Amino acid sequence: MTSKLRLGVNIDHVATIRNARGGLHPDPVRAAEIVAACGGDGITAHLREDRRHILDSDLARIQAATSLPLNLEMAATDEMLEIALRHMPHAACIVPEKREERTTEGGLDAAGQHNRLAPIVSRLRDAGIRVSLFIAPEPRQIEAAFLLGAPVVELHTGEYAHAEGEAQVIELARLADMAALAAKNGIEAHAGHGLTYDNVQPVAAIPQLAELNIGHYLIGEAIFVGLEASVTRMRELMDAVR
Ligand code: PXP
Predict the structure, then answer these.
(1) pLDDT greater than 90 at residue 103
(2) Domain range holding 226?
(3) In 3-state terms, what secondary structure has residue 61?
(4) Distance of alpha carbon 24 from alpha carbon 84, whole angstroms
(5) Confidence class of residue 94 from pLDDT cuts 50, 70 and 90?
(6) Which of 93, 143, 206, 241 has its CA 20 to 30 A from that of 121?
């Protein structure tokens, strides 16, 4: 039995559906309220440069609607830094962002982009925002996060989620090793991307992980069973292996 694993629910795709018609429904704020009421530990939202889902105006409304910590996913740009400093979310997770991608496809190259990331990490940290770097589960990225002074890394679970059989076992071992390496260096380890009811438990069982951030699958399931039921089920699956 290890400590409780937090569940951050990414509500971006509630906004994706809303924006498909340009109106107000479905409102991601209502999703945040439901997550708060049914055992989610945090709200995650990615304000993209192209504003394809979450909008600037959503951030303050989400913060006002629930007392759950807001984890703002953001690209390492001056525009996003200014927005983060204005809204003061609990946490900011720096992600790589490509305009043409469908989702955040890979991890941040924290090792290759030290000089670009360093001032952004320090400005966020100095403001009291908990900084996380979304990285591939690789030793050089953990080392880079350490050198940047990031208190948190989020390990990209996309490779694990897409792999099958033996390849998935290898990806899981990489995640476990990197969570342990992060913890050894005093960095809190989170994980996320592509997690579902079927693949979450081996990841949730990694003892050094403190938080999972899950979005697309939970919102997709919510179409069939409702958001409360999808979050509750995910919570149960995670708790069963801790
Ligand atoms: N964590 C981060 C940093 C992400 O960028 C995303 C996707 O926006 C997620 C977690 C959630 O991934 P998914 O939507 O596949 O569950």
Answers:
(1) no
(2) 6-240
(3) helix
(4) 23
(5) very high
(6) 206
**In this structure, what CATH number is given to the domain that contains residue 228?**
3.20.20.70
What does the alpha-carbon distance between residue 160 and residue 202 come to, in Å, rounded to a whole number?
A: 10
Q: Which of 5, 78, 69, 14 is nearest to 227 (CA)?
A: 14
Total number of domains constituting the chain: 1
Atom of ligand 1 nearest to the CA of 217: 16
For the segment 144-153, the average pLDDT, to the nearest whole number, is 98
CB atoms within 10 A of CB 218: 24
H/E stretch holding 43: strand 42-46
Give the mean pLDDT of 91-116: 87
Mean predicted confidence (pLDDT) in 37-65: 96
Cβ 87 vs Cβ 58: under 8 Å:
no
Q: Is 82 a catalytic residue?
A: no
- Going from the Cα of 16 to the center of ligand 1, the distance in angstroms, rounded, reads 14
Query: How far apart, in whole angstroms, are the C-alpha atoms of residue 189 and residue 238?
Result: 16
Residues sharing a CB contact under 8 Å with residue 181, sequence separation 6 or more, in sequence order: 139, 142
Candidate of 7, 10, 200 to mutate for ligand 1, largest count of ligand atoms within 8 Å of Cβ:
10
Residue 112 lies in a domain: yes
Is the residue at 1 inside a domain?
no
Decide: residue 30, CB within 10 A, 0-12 exposed, 13-18 middle, 19+ buried. middle
In a domain, 83, yes or no: yes
Q: Look up 25 and say whether it is catalytic.
A: no
